[in-house]
Amino acid sequence: MTEKVLLVDDEKEFLDSLAERMKTRGMDVSTATSAIDALKKTEGESYDAIVLDLMMPGMDGLEVLKVLKKKRPEVQVILLTGHATVEKGIEAMKLGALDFLEKPADLATLTKKIKEAQAKKMILVDKRTEAKIKEIIQGKAW
Amino acid sequence: MSILSRVKPDFWNHRDGSEGPFKHLFDFRRIWKLAVGLSAAIALAPVISMAVFEYKVTHNAMEAEVLLRTARLVSNTRRTVSFFFSERKAALDLLVRQHTLEELKKPDLLTGLLEGLQKAVGGFTDLGVVDHQGRQQSYVGPYELEGVDYSDQEWFKEVVLRGVYISDVFLGFRDLPHLVIAVKHDLPDGSFYVLRATLDTARFNDLLSQLEVSGNGDAFIINREGIIQTPPRYCGRVLGKISLPVPEYSSRTRVLEEKNFNGQLLVIGYAYVTETPFILVIGEQKAELMKSWYRTRTKLIGFLAASIVAILVVILGVATHLVNKIYLADEKRVMTLHQVEYANKMASIGRLAAGVAHEINNPLAIINEKAGLIKDIFTYRKEYARDEKLLGLVEWILTSVGRCGAITRRLLSFARHMHVSIEPVQIKEVIDEVTGLLGKEAEYRDISIHVDVSDDVPAFESDRGKLQQIFLNLVNNAFAAMSDGGRLDIKVRRETPDAILLRVTDDGCGIPPADLKRIFEPFFSTKKKKGGTGLGLSITYGLVKELGGTISVQSEVGKGTSFTISLPIQLKQRKKGNG
Q: Which residue from A minimizes the CA distance to B403?
């Protein structure tokens, strides 16, 4: 099963290379170069994992994370940054990020995290579906 | 020298290296001198001037008192002497008035009169009647003097002229000191006769010898030529000449000061005894008279000296103590200032390092991905046919990126720990971080670093950043002391259940014993010419103290140096709200 991933980073070069590499590893990768772009893309689509840069012009990673989590609580976000500080990391985890990686990150590690994210999301989606089904079963008079 | 150096306060040899507009504020020796000088002047000037003033006043008063006393004694004695003569003169007067010349010429009567005089007045040895021609008409006394002609003698002329005559003391042909007193009696027919009496000097002498003269004094009578008339106690003998000049005439008692032949100062009081050729002289040694005052003066001067010494001791003590306090406070201030400066510097370096690391991380990430992509292409696309050489090159790039990443991460962790306060610390991690930072230098210089942390050392509460600084300073110091190819040992042991022991040992040049005592002092540096600030170890010392530990040093020149730090496992919370 292919993982549907959204990469968000203001550095296009980094984004392209990483996207291509992930694609060669069989992932379904979309990219966004700004926070606005990323939010737009998440409107219509549902991603297994979103890899988010912390430092971006305009809206930074943490703000995007907040908005995303509000809209879709099940969304899995991995923060990737060159500006790693403990405080930021803790804040990100509190806001519900799945993980926090430092640039330059090993692709293998990133892939592993993405897979984790996918699994977690599936569980969440399954649970929701189950709940919905239960609701439907209980709600309708058969 | 050793006593001097022990007494010498710390600030004495202080030399402030800094130049600046406020340099004079730190010239402690000058401050000390100023303090001592000013307070000594303020304290001593009134004391000394009071003492001098008091001295002068009492001295003058005492002197005046001495002179006055002498003057009183002289004038009293003069009265006595004067009375002595007027009494005898009056007695003779009485005789000539009550008896006629004819009666007086009778030897029987004259003998009776002499006896009467001797009993009632005393001092008379003979009595004679001399007629107007100077011939002795009758005489009673121990000598055969009847008929002696006095007409051309001095005393006769004198008595004719003045009516009364008192002679100097003289020996005469009797070879005994005596004096003559004569009164003239005018007769109704215009002629006259003279009653002449000789006095022995014993009673006369008694007058003066019984006189109590203080101050080793002397009282005697001289005539107007300076011949001594009564036996003096010290100044010569009767009928000798006095050693001092005859004082000038004065109708009143006078007192003057004169030096005698011994150089002693004498107080001499004199008075001309009226109607006699005599001058009464009383001489006293001034030193003797002033003796009691001198005694008091010696006591006072002693007391003054003692108080001056006491005042000086107190001033010196207080000034030294205070200036030393200022000096120590200033030392502390400078130390704190430098510590703050150092901490600020470290913090800036930390921020800089973090900034650099962050900025580098992004391009590093791009390189990483690009290289990864190349690798992927080589791996997955057939047209590049798995070129082993290119693959190897890409692998190298990736490895290097990994190394760069490790460095930036280390820089970040260094910066991160700048402000972190107390937390559980694994000492091994701290040491690894420090040796990681300094590892390259060690490698270049072929210095081997041996870290030995025993297993029973627990994670203990401490400030990671400060521990790092401590190790950084110690290892840097060790490196500076070591030659290439040396060996550095870092050992960590659990000393007691409550403390761990860290020891950093090098095999460098060592520290001479003289420097060893001062090694933790701020600004003490043997690397000054090479740019050392002399602060490294003093800051280390301060840091260890802040962490509640102790630091000590053992060193042997040529063999190496060993710093031992003991740190508590449980840190006592001294400062709150520190992080």
A: A104
Kindly report, residue by residue over A103-139, the tens digit of the pLDDT.
888 888 888 888 888 888 888 888 888 888 888 888 7
- Distance in Å, alpha carbon of B342 to nearest chain A alpha carbon: 24
**Which token pair is A75?**
């969304």
Q: Is B577 left (phi over 0), alpha (psi -120 to 50) or beta?
A: left
CA–CA distance from B149 to each of B127, B137, B169, B178, B185 (Å)?
15, 9, 21, 19, 18
- ipTM for the assembly: 0.73
Please provide the DSSP assignment of B546-578 as one string: HTT-EEEEEEETTTEEEEEEEEESS----SSS-
Query: C-alpha dihedral over B526, B466, B479, B529, to 10 degrees?
Result: -30
Nearest to B358 among A11, A24, A82 (CB): A82
Closest CA to B26 of B284, B323, B295, B237: B323
pLDDT for residue B576: 40
CA distance B563 to chain A (A): 34
Distance CA B194, CA B130 (A): 5
**Which of A17, A81, A103 has the CB atom closest to B364's CB atom?**
A103
Domains of chain B: 91-204 (3.30.450.20), 344-568 (3.30.565.10)
**Residue B18: predicted pLDDT:** 52
How far apart CA B516 and CA B537 sit, in angstroms, is: 12
Helix (H/G/I), strand (E/B), else coil: B489? strand
Residue B302: its pLDDT value, please?
A: 93
Q: Do the Cβ atoms of A21 and B361 come within 8 Å? A: no
- Sheet with B124-131, strands from edge to edge, namely B136-140, B124-131, B192-200, B178-186, B164-166
A105:B370 CB<8 A: no
Q: Are A6 and B357 in contact (CB under 8 A)?
A: no
In chain B, which residues have pLDDT < 50?
Answer: 1, 420, 531, 574-579
pLDDT given at position B374 = 84
Residue B266 bridge partners (DSSP):
B258, B285
Q: Are B85 and B166 in contact (CB under 8 A)?
A: yes
Rounded to whole angstroms, how far apart are CA atoms B20 and A142? 97
In whole angstroms, how far apart are CA A29 and each of A42, B343, B560?
A: 13, 47, 62
Q: What residues make up the domain containing A77?
A: 4-139
**Residue range B99-111, pLDDT digits in tens:** 888 888 888 888 8
